[in-house]
Each structure stands twice: as structure tokens, then as C-alpha cells.
């Protein structure tokens, strides 16, 4: 899959709502969380898909370890 470069405004279109894909950005890399049960509906523990969650993921109990399981959309 060819990598896609996203602006923050473009990323907002991938909010996981109304059938749209759910993407998050962490440290400049965009991940697809569309099929992750914990992100169903585009939200996960107060975090919203379509945003950069870099500052929040480091505070999560799992940290960045769960990112290894996700599909990279951009890097």
C-alpha cells in the first residue's frame, strides 16, 4: 500500500463516525483503528479518532505497545 501524507485537517475526516474509517496519528505516523473493537464509533477512553493522540498515548497504561498491532497508513 502506498503511503499517504495527511494534514491534520485531512486526518479529521477519518473520525470513525457514520461509516468513515477511523485513523489516529502518533508521533507523525497515522494508524488505522477502524476495526479495533476498543475504537468502535471512533472513540476510545475519551480520545477521538481523526486526531493526533501522541500526548495522550504515553499516559495510557499500555503506552505505545499496542501500536505494533495496527496497520500503518502513513509514516
Automatic annotation (TrEMBL):
One Pfam family linked to the record: Cyt-b5
InterPro entries in the cross-refs: Cyt_B5-like_heme/steroid-bd, Cyt_B5-like_heme/steroid_sf
SUPFAM superfamilies (alphabetical): Cytochrome b5-like heme/steroid binding domain
Residue intervals of the Cytochrome b5 heme-binding domain: 6-73
Species name: Ligilactobacillus salivarius (strain UCC118)
TM region positions: none
Identification of the protein by name: Cytochrome b5 heme-binding domain-containing protein
Amino acid at each position: 500500500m502506498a503511503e499517504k501524507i495527511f494534514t491534520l485537517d485531512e486526518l479529521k475526516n477519518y473520525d470513525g463516525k457514520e461509516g468513515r474509517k477511523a485513523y489516529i496519528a502518533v508521533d507523525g505516523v497515522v494508524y488505522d483503528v477502524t476495526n479495533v473493537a476498543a475504537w468502535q464509533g471512533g472513540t476510545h477512553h475519551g480520545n477521538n479518532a481523526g486526531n493526533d493522540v501522541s500526548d495522550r498515548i504515553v499516559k495510557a497504561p499500555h503506552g505505545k505497545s499496542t501500536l505494533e498491532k495496527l496497520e500503518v497508513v502513513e509514516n
